[in-house]
Amino acid sequence: MKVLGIETSCDETGVAVYDTDAGLRAHALYSQIALHAEYGGVVPELASRDHVRKLLPLIRQTLAESGLDVNELDGVAYTAGPGLVGALLVGAGVARALAWALEVPAIGVHHMEGHLLAPLMEDDPLGRPQPPFVALLVSGGHTQLVAVDAIGQYRLLGETLDDAAGEAFDKTAKLMGLPYPGGPQLAAQAELGRPGLFKFARPMTDRPGLDFSFSGLKTQVLLAWRNSDQSDQTRADIARAFEDAVVDTLAIKCGRALDAAGCDTLVVAGGVGANRRLRAKLATMTEKRGGRVCFPRPAFCTDNGAMIAYAGALRLQAGQFESAAVKVTPRWDMALLQAV
């Protein structure tokens, strides 16, 4: 089955073709970072308009790179939520119209299920991870620990009570004067920082439970930055201390989640999953436990069409599809999904 995937949940336009026999055939991504940089964050209306401009050219490009004609598609998948309602409607409208014209099934995909399944999309030397496992979904909009009993059967173990980890990276970078988007800039600064010169708390690790809280870390960084000489090296040292605090907190909670779920396999997805120090920390943690951790390739940690094409293909293969109505769900609990 050859499935076209469309991702337009926020500020990146992603398109891909996934073949259940041949794997990922092609993918393309357009980022709106430059568009939103002057505003210091995503402007929803501008994001929607840019998806309108970029989506059809990206579909044509991806189909050409895949070597397929549009009439050879067997299905269309698109992000139906969660996300910005206007941006979601752009992708949903195009996907539904295309599926209707081709007389093929279409399905709306949960954005976070796409992230969760991204590490399963490609071959792994140790084999693709099979449920049950624990997933850490960590991005600018979400920080969740999920027990995956089967594809489509998810139990929320813990989540952030305030800022997501990626959001905390972005906001912390901004208060230290780093340019948008702040998260990658802060991680780059952390590579230049000296460990141990600043020490920040590991929030909510001194009590039971699997929930997170990162807003307090921003306050600690703000105070440290205000009371410092605000030199480039100090900025790097504080960035390193902040990153260490977030990484340690995520690793501690992941270990607890594996214990709670009785699993030894951890799957990590979302934009923060590309962080080099987080990858190393979780690899060491799971190895010591006799388990394993699986990541998507860095290009598929951030929003992309490939993960939507893959998740949609699994559901379409299972005979799931929806009516021709253009429907999106900006707020969508993943626990409500139908099992595959």
UniProtKB/TrEMBL annotation:
Keywords assigned: Acyltransferase, Cytoplasm, Iron, Metal-binding, Transferase, tRNA processing
Pfam families given in the database record: TsaD
Cofactor(s) for this UniProt protein: Fe(2+)
Reaction equation(s) it catalyzes: L-threonylcarbamoyladenylate + adenosine(37) in tRNA = N(6)-L-threonylcarbamoyladenosine(37) in tRNA + AMP + H(+)
Gene Ontology cellular-component terms listed: cytoplasm
GO biological process, one term: tRNA threonylcarbamoyladenosine modification
Record's keyword annotation contains Repeat: no
Keyword Lipid biosynthesis: no
Cofactor binding, per record: Binds 1 Fe(2+) ion per subunit.
Listed SUPFAM superfamilies: Actin-like ATPase domain
The protein's Enzyme Commission number: 2.3.1.234
Domain of life assignment: Bacteria
Residues noted as binding Fe cation in the record, renumbered to the chain: H111, H115, D303
Gcp-like domain boundaries: 25-310
Entry's Gene Ontology molecular function annotations: iron ion binding; tRNA N(6)-L-threonylcarbamoyladenine synthase activity
Residues bound to substrate: L137, V138, S139, G140, G141, D170, G183, N275
Enzyme class: transferase
Compartment(s) where it occurs, according to its Swiss-Prot or TrEMBL record: Cytoplasm
Similarity annotation: Belongs to the KAE1 / TsaD family.
NCBIfam families xrefs: gcp_kae1, T6A_TsaD_YgjD
Described purpose of this protein according to its UniProt entry: Required for the formation of a threonylcarbamoyl group on adenosine at position 37 (t(6)A37) in tRNAs that read codons beginning with adenine. Is involved in the transfer of the threonylcarbamoyl moiety of threonylcarbamoyl-AMP (TC-AMP) to the N6 group of A37, together with TsaE and TsaB. TsaD likely plays a direct catalytic role in this reaction.
Name of this chain's protein: tRNA N6-adenosine threonylcarbamoyltransferase
Organism of derivation: Lysobacter antibioticus
